[in-house]
Amino acid sequence: MRTLFCALTVMLALGLVAKFTVADDQKGAAAKQSITGILIDQRCGEQLLFKDNPEAAAVDHTKACATAEACAASGYTVISVNKMFKFDDNGNTLAKDFLAKTPLDKNLRVTVEGTVNVDQIAVTSLTAATQPK
Asked: Of 66, 74, 52, whose CA–CA distance to 110 is shortest?
């Protein structure tokens, strides 16, 4: 009887470990996303989150402000509709490179790909996005 109880306990434990491992793998895969929105520094982006439509408000934010020392030091983010996704170090590097090369002064619409964790994104790519009509 004791052997049967031990065997059932081990099988239950292995089943639970397998279930949570699969759930974690699926959660990680689902977290990889492509987000299109407005590239902005975190300092100014946080102020726009209180607007009715943060993405629309961010359209008028200038490249000069985003590249100013204090704003650039805060890091970069993308605002999509009413949510802000903060960049990791790689994303900040890609954003600085994008800002240095883009001819646009406002409406810095980008598509960011990476792994999302709540309100942060580990950026794997950042490209100019098509402007909506």
From this structure: 66
